[in-house]
Amino acid sequence: MVTAEKGAAEWLAVAKDVADKLAVDAAERDRANETPYAEVRLLKEAGLVTLLGPPEHGGGGQSWDTAYRVIREVARGDGSIGQLLGYHYLWAWAARLVATEAQIAAVEELYTSENYLFGGAVNPRDGDLAIVEDGDEIVYNGRKSFSTGSKVSDLTVLEGVLDGTEDHIFAIVPSAQEGIVFHDDWDNIGQRLTESGSVSITGVRVPWASAAGYVDKEFRPLTYNTLNVPAIQLVFANFYLGIAQGALETAAAYTRGHTRAWPYGGDNKESAAEEWYVLDAYGDLQAKLWAAEALVDKAGAAISRVLHAPREELTPQARGEIAVLIAAAKQRVIDTGLEIGTRVFEVTGARASASKVGLDRFWRNLRTHSLHDPVAYKRREVGAYTLLGELPEPTWYT
Description:
By secondary structure, this protein is an alpha+beta fold. 49% of the residues lie in helices and 12% in strands.
């Protein structure tokens, strides 16, 4: 277990070691499509699950700026596991986003001391879970078509609407209970090990005292509460970036070790790594990737500052400007990553398309998750800000 005294650079070294281990058999595990118990155990044993947790309970006490880079590094080795870790960080921070000070302390002590992994059943495109009040408890019922983390999670974040009101209530509950049934129906072409299938919630009871942010059954909103969406959108951008980095690194290793030079071009070379069009392509893709990384890092530094600042200080203007920057970073990473995922085959050759090489998984992973919400709307947000000075209004996706 890594100690809490480690700094950001040392945590990134830990993440790199984890990524290198994941990369060894990533293609085989992708094809097997089995529940990633061993992979989650690796994250826990490395101390990465409690990276943001309080040091007094054994956590790393690190910033979001570091957490984003850790997500990216892990995704370089395996995009699915990078997503699981990124979603965990967001849901572990959910208490800070909306809960009371006492609730925050209790949740952070619990997950940090127990080394618990979070999942979440909060897909906004489905109908909200229904909540009814029963004395000192509230009871959740319903179904969600996506629940990333499912069987590998220890805790699940629920969200629903209280019957007869428009009040949304978040709560954190144990994942292993009779009232939560994960349906094991995630069978998409990419991000196959994220345990993102559907879930049924039946009669899950939560004390009113654990309703996040509620005091005497009333919620007092802050602009800070709305940071959940920009924060997770940048989680997306970082594991997309890690996937793209993994694709380029894997392709380069294949080109160096296996790709044969083309003997019919009139400017024949001894190796593919000497061919001008191969060097041109890698130079173009690397430059684009570095540019995307710089924008993602800029966004990470900006949101990290406000995530760790007093909650009452965040203004709608500052929140909106950060959301626009993250929208720009996300669209740039998607475009660059998909281009890399396609063009790497041009510089590795026909034999690189073999299933055993697994080079296709990078494009499949990025293509699958980047459909989470239409990137065209991210471009529109940036355009409206640039042309009209408009800030995106907080919604479930902005």
